[in-house]
Records
---
Amino acid sequence: MAETTDNATGWTLSTPVSALRGVGPHLAGALEQMGLRTLSDLIRHLPHRHEDEHATETIASLADVPEGAVASAEGVVDACRSVGHGRKGRFEATLSDSTGTIKLTWFNAAWMRGKLPAGTRVRVQGKIKRYGPYLQMTGPKWATLADEDEDEGGGEPTIPRTAAGNGLFSPRSAESADGDAPRLRPVYPATERIPSDRLASLIERAVEAVVDQIEDPVPPAIVEHHRMPTLAEAYRRIHAPADRDEIAGARRRLAFNELLVLQLGVAVKRAHTRLKLRAPRLVASAALLEGIAELLPFEMTAAQKRVTAEITADLARPFPMNRLLQGDVGAGKTAVALHAMLIAQAAGKQAALMAPTALLAEQHHQAIEKMLEGTGVRVGLVTAHRRQDVEAVAGRTLDGNDPSRRVDVVVGTHALLSEKLAFRDLGLAVIDEQHRFGVRQRAALRSAGNESPHVLVMTATPIPRTLSLTLLGDLDVSTIDELPPGRIPVASRVVDPAKAADVYAYAEKRIAAGEQVYVVVPSIEPGEHPDPDAPVLKNVEEFQHELAELLPGRRIAVVHGRLKPEERREVMAAFRRHRSDVLLATTVIEVGVDVPNAAVMIIEHADRFGLSQLHQLRGRIGRGAGTASGGKPLCVFLANPRTDEAKERLAALAATADGFKIAEADLTIRGMGEFFGTRQAGAATLRVARLPEDTELLLLARRDAQQIVEADPELAADGHALLRRVLRQSHRGELNLVEVG
């Protein structure tokens, strides 16, 4: 309790921070910039770590603190001086109390001149060092001691006194400390204007005043079953722990709450889909399935047959399928999708396949049209670059009134979402590389028909289980975990750019043996990624001339995202027919490009690409039954990684070609929020829970959420009213990510 206590009568969680004694407009404004407007905000501002700190009452007792341990001291500055000149000068001070003195030193701290004049009463925190019989702290944190009044002047912060001695330790922590045992000091996300220590003082007072008003949305029976503290007690312990076990228990409870609310949202959506939405029943007879199998130019793998059976069963149900089909590069997802689209067509419905790029849409269209040649199934193509086609499709082709103009299967890009385009009767929507589309785009395609169509989303970026349960939790998941027979494993090498000439000399040998080569660079033209500390990035415009010198006499083609669709198609068709030896490209070839004779890929500046992106690129080679040279398909990552993260990415690629292992490594390296390269709008934010470390807790929350929703699908019971309110407040917009439509 502070010596000058707050008058907390009538305070609630929504009481503004300005009610705290000493928080005037200046400090309140700084807190608001941190998103801290109410006492509730302060309580929910969690420490990002806890430091062991030896609290002492006298400077003399610091002699008993182990060297290197963090300790605190209070005293008066006896003397101070600046040594050296300029910004790199050091500042020294001597702090004393009635029992002794300690030397304080700050390096590169010319700015300290005049900050701690002799006679200033100050509190310092830092690591203890010894020089012979003398004690010293180097670069300690410090704050002047004053009464609990706000410093409106913008000088150094002041620390109010409390009964605990300094305002930085909570009374609870102080009471639980055993003698000179280290105390656990919470360290908060802070700013230069409001350091962690000042926040600790404010948070301590907010917790003391109103933490018991926090309502716990989790039913008491669940809390008791898992032997967890109440929500209010968890917040109290995370801010003022008696020991490390209390920190772990409090964090576990807070993380469980986050995961439970997220899983409740997932479970409610699944229940809504099954109980409220209606979709056409697309029932496939045995004869139809046999006929579709005969259309395919190859026999499906066991894994393809398994997931096809799962999708076929979903299509026959009266509620919308909501399924994720994932499989590594080249696993045969398109054939599975075509199988489902033909079931829809046979039932008199239309099917749409939406791809993330025009190039991929065009390739899907060509492959499907060729496969369905002579069947009478009409296949259309819609891309934004071909406005006349969009208008023609909108005006006639999808209009089922004229059977001769009807299109059964439509392949396209986001242009399929055009308001001018109206599906007659969409029964199935297939979305390829689903993470490249936003929430609203997926929802728009789902709502394109009169009924809710079935939805199949596909990805060649395997999604770790922890993420599929969170970001994509309302989708059923099918996994193709087997590659078609005859695929040759790709060898991977990480090579220093200094040896690039050797790499291209080897590529020349493979070209001479009749094979083709991809060369990937990060940009189209110079100056797209300015970074004065980084090497100049190779780009298509300039590097094609250098490449011609490295591979003299070879036919070099160029493809990138700025080429017109017609030019892109011509370049890719020529490469596929082996009218060029080398394809210099950007990441436009990342997905969907299939050239069986391409056996070598060289990726320049590989450290500038994401892990999953590199894996996707590597998947463009080794797609044939063999190589002309008899050697293994080879992917060379030319890179000189400057960061630990880049080194980890390349090491993971060199270690395995298993997309699922790479996805797990990517999640571990980059974390959940950045797993998809750029964070999607609406991605649920987890502030406490950490994945994949908290996978066990996630599964626990998932099980509890499913049980709750099975008994109460809309959380309408009185006992679930608070859960329902928290769910709406926490994830109203964010949970759209797990809803395909």
---
Amino acid sequence: MGIRNSILLRVRIAFLFIVMIAVAIVVRISDLQFVEHDKWEKAGNANRVKIRRVDATRGNIMAEDGSLLATSIPFYKLAFDPMVSPDSIFDKGVDSLAYNLSIYFREKTKAQYDSLLRTSRKRKRRYLILSQKQIKHQDKKIIEQWPIFREGRHRGGVIFDKVEKRFKPFNDLGRRTIGFIRKDEEAKFTGRGLEFSFNVDLAGTDGEALFQRVSGNQWKPLDNGAQIRAKNGFDIQTTLNMEFEEHAHKVLHEALIKHDANFGTVLLMEVQTGEIKAIVNLGRNKEGNYVEDFNYAIQGVMEPGSTFKGASMLAVLEESDINITDSVNTGEGKYQFYDECIMTDAHQNGFGMISVEEVIQKSSNIGISKLVFKNFRENPERFFRYLDKYNLTSTIGFQMEGEGQPNISRPGDPSWSGCSLPWISIGYEVEVSPLQILNFYNTIANDGKMIEPYIVKRILQGNEVIDEHHTKVIRKSIGSERSIKALQGMLKKVVSSGTAKKINTTDFNISGKTGTTQKLKAGRYTKSYFTSFVGYFPSEAPKYTMIVAIDEPRGNQKYGGDVCAPVFRDIAEVVYNRTTERNIEYVTNENEAAFPYIKAGNYNDLILLSDAFDIQQVSKNTSNWVRTQVQGDTIAWVNARVKKGLMPDVRGMTLRDAIYLVESEGASVTFSGSGRVSTQSISPGGRINGRTKVHLKLL
């Protein structure tokens, strides 16, 4: 009996405990529902509403003429708040809206869109993404006029979520120079090239706005005015000439394919200003195609080889009273400095006794190393002080991030040995970037004045100049006039009769230095080569300096004079023809006064004209365009060569014929005077394209 009562007591106590808990729950629910309702609703809303970042519109990157190299183009994602519209507007327009959505996006049928819109409204959804497809700005304007949407955001419920994409109008041209930028959720940036180097100017200042979390973990912007507007980024204007860039890209690409090389670079600089006019970097990817993958010109450091000899020679000229006609005995192609330090020349039997001038002209390793060793072996540090002065041992301070750091052994370093001085003098045991080598030769072209290279000249906000870069002199002179002039003479002879004589075919003079370096792999020098040519033109009054470098050419041609110098010449010809005003006069014939004024033009037109004047004629022609040769009392018609992509010889032609020929190649024509063409601004055979401007003078 006692046990039964004990059990009943326990059950009653448990029951009362459960009832008390239930009552407490009911009371708490009532409290939450009626007493604390406003408090928790506010807290819930606070959790669903958040201030989020609104990205600023990034500034443009422009070429020297204002052409866009990189710009931000707005795209939009289409969303919809089906609860905003009154029933009258929604019911009237939903059928037509569903039709337009099906036609434009082609992702659902009209019936499916109709069902989606009506169901979302019935379920009181406040943010419906209609498609993940990104809409162009022009299409946005059309969509804004669709039924319901034409009522706007507040009555039509249409929401355009803006997404900006970076667009490069010139595609792969200068891609590595322009670079890229990435921004994470915390607004931290990573990237390369101009995009990264000038990000502070380009990025602008992000704004803030209120967003509400909706179903699907989506964030819907709240248009309640509670926001900080983004401040758009500034534009940057570069020094790049895209006509030069395009041609340099084409010529280098063809050379890389021809020589089956690993990579190549071209860097073109204006002598007196330091403006970089073209920069091309092409490397072979896994698929075997050449693309802009790394900035070899600025970031890449490598043993330069014989192009370093120019600096070594200048140091010798400055240190001693040596004359360029003095002799240097290079022997039979081998010279031993120490037991394990044997210098050789590329010429199998050596150059024998040659002049100091010929050391550079023939690119003698023995010649330059003996001169440097003789003048600096007692105090090698003096040699390095010259290299310091030439900016070959430190970075220049170029505007773009990532300039390659020169690497060179100095006396006292663990890597220094008895072989170091002669080997460094010929461009081994030293690593520099193409930019740093170019800067030295630009200084020689500029009569010893060292100018800082730069690639961005203006920061702009619309048409307002915020900041401007001006030419900066690093050193007023790196050497005496005597030494600079002597080296200039040597570099001119390299092209006229030395290791680059194959490119001595232009109608202007080029000065420069070839470079060929055996590459070090696994601690041993191999039969793989790094080739280069650096120089300036025209020699007498230099306007441009350029370096061309190609890594590991395969095939029979492995030297800088064979591989890189022709690339230099082809680019230089175009640059020279585009930038040099020349009067190319028509050469008169002593008998031409006896005939009417016929010199050149369309063959059929001139035949009719000659027949009308009863002029005797003989044809040596097989083309539509001819020039005349006077032979006694007879005119001979000869072919006027017109080749695709090249400037025709239009001297002596009527303006109509001249314009037709030039514009057929895409170039634009300006003219002055009247009569027939007397002079043309681009010489016959010069390359022309759609961005070329040709001026004709008529007399």
